[in-house]
Structures are given as structure tokens and as C-alpha cells.
Design brief:
Elements (H helix, E strand, L loop, with lengths): L1 E8 L3 H12 L5 E4 L20 E2 L7 E2 L6 H6 L2 H10 L4 E3 L4 E4 L4 H14 L3 E3 L4 E7 L2 E6 L2 E10 L14 H7 L9 E3 L3 E3 L11 E10 L3 E12 L3 E3 L1 H7 L7 E5 L6 H14 L5 H4 L6 H10 L15 H9 L1 E8 L7 E3 L19 E3 L7 E2 L4 H20 L5
Parallel strand pairs: 1-2, 1-10, 2-7, 10-19
Antiparallel strand pairs: 3-6, 4-20, 5-6, 8-9, 9-10, 11-18, 12-15, 12-17, 13-14, 13-16, 14-15, 16-17
Length: about 400
């Protein structure tokens, strides 16, 4: 009979780190049940494969929830504790100019590797290719059904992930397991995902990346989100860090207002273009925006403003203001998103107010819920991985106390 002190359902970042912390606290009989044939598949792809594990600016204000807050968990186990723990495993980590923290190897897979090595060294049982289909209370513990038979455990940790990136094995099945114990789930949305937009004025811009300020506007409401960061034009809409962060709040029909020149005040841009028309009256409209904006973007701005490429500068006096308005407020209507299949994280989840300060269920003692499964999501830039690690560590400490171990 398979009997463990703690069974963790899910071998992603939160599940692996929870198991590691449990082992470090001296708890034996730990197992991870992972439906894939290896642990950490999604972790190995994070940060565009470079492993953006946290951010220098970690704080609760970078996280979102309708049912609670990330503050308490981050206070117990934050960036400093995470980096110390990962460094103790033999890794070197450093921040880039934007505050994103990466392993020195710039390989996300190497973060997975040091966690796997540590789990093996500490005797954690890794039950790969094991799909958990049901969890039920049995006496003082739990009976867990899998395709390979039943497993019994004193405590169970649901670290199953959300609905994002299902090709890594997270299909949302964890929500059903939690609901069987009476938990409620907030509405789920793909987050940190590319947005689809009308394409008339972005054709030919695929692959162009720009530093922009974006604002999400909703009819009858006004601005609902704004952010400065990278915007990457695609053949179906827009991507990039600023768009990823905005995607959690954006609905079909919203309007993206993009400031293509966020480092320059409107009057400066207006003055620059006005003086160009005076100094170079024979200059073609297409050349007016040279050294002001990417040439391909400039041509699309002219199309957006219904300005002929060949129009001489001396005839542009009435068009300068609309051109500047477009440069500082290029608008695109959102037609959808790239969906859960391409999302980095799930917005929404099991209600945080149904969990105690150690992320144990208030509805079932000994059951813990961590990571993307719960109603916490963060901005782009290492915030979601920090939450995964932090929630795993806090749950581990709660389990240790519950089982009578010193923390």
C-alpha cells in the first residue's frame, strides 16, 4: 500500500518547491504525483526559456485577486528567502536592468534541474506519469485515486496548476478536485497572453517591438488599466510585456490606446514635425517621420491618418496634429485573445478567503491549495513564479506545524 505523510498533486514549480521545503524541515514520506513523464515542464519554459524566477520589485501591489491578497504569503516567504534557498541549491542568480531575476545560466531548465537534484537527494518519491482522478477524506487522512491505484496520505497539497498552457499538462482538473471539498472558484480568464485586434493598420508590422505606453479603454467606463513596456506587433494583433499585463483586464470590444513615443511630450513631437515641414517643404510625407518612429510604423500611421505617402511637407499643415495624435494615441479595437492555449497564467481560481494563512483549506483540514490553482495572479516579470515558490514554502511550513515539526 502506498502511504505517505504528504502527497503533493502536481510537479510544477509550486509542487516541487513545497516538497523541497518539507524535506528541508525534516519531514519524511513525501511524494509528488505528476501526470507528465517528468517534473517541471512549464517551469523549464518560463521567461522565454531563460527562467525569470522573481523580480527585484516584488510586492503585493503587483498581484491581483478578487477574494484575497498575496501580501501575507509574500511576507512569510519573499524574494530574499527564495533567492537564498535557490542559491543554497548551487545556483547563481542576478537581476537585469529591469529588475527581472534570472539564473546566471539563462536557462529555465537549469532551475528545474537543481530542484530535481535536490528532491532526489532528499528522498522525495516522484510518481511521474501518475494522473490523480479523485481525492477523498479517509479517517484522519486522505485516499487519492490514480490511474495506477490508490494512494493514502496524512496531508494532501493540490498544486495542479490552472488552465493556461494545457500542452504542459495543466488542464484545470485541479478545480474539480477542490470543488469536491466545497470550495468555490472565481471566473477563469487567460492572462499574460497575446491580444487579437483589428488588423487594418498593423499589417506589415509583424515582429516590430517598441517601448510604448498602453491604456485599456472600455465604453461607458473609461480607462481600466495602463502600463508602459514592450509592445510586439504580430500578424493577428499585439504581444509583449505591456500587452501581457493588460490582457488580464481586457475584454473583446475594449480599445487599446498606444502611445508609440512615451518618452516625448506631445508638444515636443508636434514642434519637431512642424519644423520639419518648414525646413524641408519638398519632403515627402513618408520621410517626415524618419528618425522619429520605425519606418514601417510610420507608414501605417500615415495610412491611419489618410495621408498619402507622396504628399509634400508643405501641404501637411492640417495633417500634423492628427499625425501627432496618432503617434501619441494609436488605437486598436480588441477582438479577442490567444486563449488559454497560449496564456502564461490563469486569472481567477479557488477563492483565497476559503484558505487560512498557511493556505490550508478552511473546509477540510489537512488539504492545502497552492500556486496557480488559487485566485492570485501577478504581472509579467517573474511575479507568478515567485508566487508559486512562496505559496509552496508557506504551505510546507503549515504542514510541518500541523505534523508537529519545529519550524
Amino acid at each position: 500500500m502506498n502511504k505517505f505523510s504528504v502527497l503533493i498533486v502536481g510537479g510544477g514549480a509550486s509542487g516541487m518547491f513545497c516538497a523541497l521545503r518539507l524535506a528541508e524541515l525534516g519531514i519524511g514520506g513525501i511524494a509528488i504525483a505528476e501526470r507528465n513523464d517528468r517534473l517541471g515542464r512549464k517551469l523549464s519554459a518560463t521567461g522565454n526559456g531563460q527562467g525569470n524566477v522573481t523580480n527585484e520589485k516584488i510586492s503585493a501591489e503587483h498581484y491581483f485577486s478578487t477574494t484575497g491578497s498575496a501580501a501575507g504569503v509574500l511576507q512569510k516567504f519573499g524574494k530574499k528567502q527564495l533567492l537564498q534557498s535557490l542559491s543554497n541549491l548551487g545556483g547563481l542568480f542576478c537581476a537585469d536592468a529591469t529588475g527581472r531575476v534570472y539564473p546566471a545560466s539563462r536557462q529555465a531548465s537549469s532551475v528545474t534541474d537543481i530542484l530535481r537534484f535536490a528532491l532526489a537527494e532528499r528522498g522525495v518519491s516522484l510518481l511521474v506519469a501518475t494522473n490523480v482522478t479523485n481525492v477523498a477524506r479517509l479517517g484522519n487522512g486522505f485516499s487519492v485515486e490514480t490511474g495506477q491505484g490508490k494512494i493514502f496520505a496524512d496531508c494532501v497539497v493540490l498544486a495542479c496548476g490552472g488552465k493556461s498552457s494545457p500542452h504542459f499538462g495543466s488542464d484545470g482538473s485541479g478545480y474539480a478536485l477542490a470543488r469536491k471539498f466545497g470550495h468555490s472558484c472565481t471566473p477563469l480568464f487567460p492572462s499574460l497572453v497575446q491580444l487579437k485586434t483589428e488588423q487594418t493598420f498593423i499589417r506589415g508590422l509583424k515582429g516590430i517591438r517598441m517601448d510604448c505606453h498602453i491604456s485599456v479603454q472600455r465604453a461607458g467606463v473609461g480607462e481600466i488599466y495602463s502600463r508602459r513596456g514592450d509592445v510586439l506587433f504580430t500578424d493577428y494583433g499585439v504581444s509583449g510585456d505591456a500587452v501581457f499585463s493588460a490582457s488580464a483586464f481586457t475584454k473583446t470590444g475594449d480599445t487599446l490606446i498606444i502611445d508609440l513615443l512615451p518618452s516625448f511630450m506631445r508638444d515636443i513631437v508636434l514642434c519637431t514635425l512642424h519644423e520639419k515641414t518648414i525646413n524641408y517643404p519638398k519632403m515627402r510625407a513618408e520621410d517626415l517621420l524618419r528618425c522619429v518612429i520605425n519606418s514601417a510604423v510610420g507608414r501605417n500611421i500615415l495610412k491611419y491618418c489618410a495621408v498619402s505617402f507622396d504628399m509634400p511637407a508643405k501641404e501637411l499643415s492640417e495633417k500634423i496634429v492628427p499625425i501627432v495624435n496618432a503617434l501619441k494615441g494609436f488605437s486598436l479595437t480588441v477582438t479577442g485573445s490567444a486563449g488559454f492555449e497560449n496564456a502564461q497564467v490563469t486569472k481567477g481560481g479557488i477563492a483565497m478567503n476559503e484558505l487560512d494563512e498557511n493556505l490550508m483549506s478552511k473546509k477540510q483540514e489537512g488539504l492545502y491549495l497552492i500556486g496557480e490553482l488559487v485566485d492570485i495572479d501577478g504581472e509579467c516579470g517573474g511575479y507568478n513564479l515567485q508566487w508559486a515558490f512562496s505559496s509552496g514554502a508557506v504551505a510546507a511550513e503549515g504542514i510541518a506545524k500541523r505534523l508537529g515539526y519545529a519550524v
